[in-house]
Design goal:
6-stranded mixed beta sheet; two-stranded parallel sheet; 11 helices
Length: 359
């Protein structure tokens, strides 16, 4: 079931006209309409939280943002990320939701939600310190509960139970727990696990479920879960396999174990989180399908990064390709705006259960 179908079927998913990011609802009737998003996860859904604290994962320099209306912001791509396209589809104001770590994100700026996502973060607490001092998912949820939620109650003048069902909770995380944890040798990361793939995926999914249930207990009712991408296909991985024509299959197989459990959470939510609505966006399949038949989607390069990379990230002020809309990936880890648009469009319009699934 696509998100658009949910928008038609569920009154709480009705959007409203664009306005300033800090605007308040005009009347009480408007309270029945979706107000914005709370976003949790990693760099794929972040809009620059790492800019405001010491971190090696600050992406606030060119060529990042080269095609974005305000230039580099910390988004891990050349233009819009998938959250920006979600906001466009929901007709939220420009630049909403704002990053939590920005000191100006307070008062009226909270009305359309907040983005807590942090580049390099993971579901496992130990993943984040290794991955360049990111804000892990636990801390992101703590920031929501202890800082944003009380402030939003004051701003809106109502209880959380009255307004939180009007917000969409987007969670896009887990990839770094594989890339910077499970797939990392112990001689590099001493806390790397030696669990077999099935057990690791099960444990990681259980951790995610606990955190989702925490958001549910706080009042969240509308959830959108984004699967992990095919990690064996990203340029940073394929760089080390120059003779391989395809993707690194072992990594993809392991990641799919977790994605399958994430989809199971959607099924389980029927009974375990009554009154909630969960949507699972299988970005793994969407992106993998693009890579397999990239020419039919208008791309010319599905293997290489568009920018000159260093450690998977774009080198600051480094070279960048001219035809950015023809590349699937912008840097060694993240898609281009063109790819993000396809993923978001599928999320809102696909009726294929293997792409978008909901209970």
């Amino acid at each position: 079931m696509s998100i658009n179908l949910l928008l038609l079927c569920l009154p709480l998913f009705t959007s409203f006209s664009p306005c300033n990011c800090h605007s308040k609802p005009k009347d009480k009737n408007n309270a029945s309409k979706i107000k914005g998003m709370f976003v949790f996860g990693s760099s794929l859904v972040s809009n620059g939280n790492n800019n405001f604290f010491p971190s090696q994962s600050q992406l606030n320099h060119l060529p990042y943002g080269i095609d974005f209306r305000s230039g580099p912001t910390g988004r891990a791509t050349n233009g819009k990320n998938v959250i920006d396209f979600f906001a466009d589809n929901l007709k939220l104001p420009p630049f909403c939701p704002p990053p939590f770590s920005d000191p100006s994100t307070k008062g009226p700026q909270l009305v359309h939600g907040v983005n807590f996502a942090s580049a390099g973060s993971g579901i496992i607490d130990d993943t984040s310190p290794y991955a360049t001092n990111a804000t892990n998912l636990n801390t992101q949820i703590d920031n929501f509960e202890k800082v944003t939620l009380p402030a939003l109650e004051v701003q809106l003048g109502s209880k959380r139970s009255d307004f939180l069902p009007n917000y969409l909770f987007v969670v896009g995380t887990g990839g770094n727990d594989y890339l910077f944890n499970y797939f990392t040798p112990k001689f590099i990361f001493k806390n790397a696990t030696d669990l077999n793939p099935e057990v690791f995926a099960e444990n990681l999914a259980n951790l995610l479920y606990q955190k989702l249930h925490k958001l549910y207990s706080l009042g969240g009712r509308k959830f959108l879960l984004i699967s992990i991408y095919p990690m064996g296909c990203i340029p940073q991985v394929r760089f080390f396999l120059p003779l391989e024509k395809g993707c690194f299959g072992i990594l993809n197989i392991d990641v799919q174990l977790f994605n399958a459990r994430m989809r199971q959470i959607v099924d389980d939510s029927r009974t375990q989180m009554p009154g909630s609505t969960f949507v699972f966006v299988n970005s793994y399949k969407i992106l993998y399908d693009i890579i397999k038949d990239y020419a039919s989607q208008g791309f010319e390069d599905e293997r290489n990064a568009c920018c000159e990379t260093e450690g998977g990230k774009c080198r600051k002020d480094g070279e960048v390709c001219d035809k950015r809309d023809k590349y699937v990936f912008f840097d060694g880890l993240h898609p281009t705006e063109a790819t993000n648009k396809i993923i978001a469009t599928k999320a809102f319009n696909s009726f294929h259960k293997n792409e978008v699934f909901s209970h």
